[in-house]
Amino acid sequence: EIVLTQSPGTLSLSPGERATLSCRASQSVSSNYLAWYQQKPGQAPRLLLYGATNRATGIPDRFSGSGSGTDFTLTISRLEPEDSAVYYCQQYNTSPFTFGPGTKVDV
Amino acid sequence: QVHLVQSGGGVVQPGGSLRLSCEASVFNFSYYGIHWVRQAPGKGLEWVAFIRYDGTNKYYADSVKGRFTISRDNSKKTLYLQMNSLRDDDTAVYYCMVITRGYWGQGALVTVSS
Question: Taking a C-beta distance cutoff of 8 angstroms, is the pair A80, A29 a contact?
Answer without folding.
Answer: no
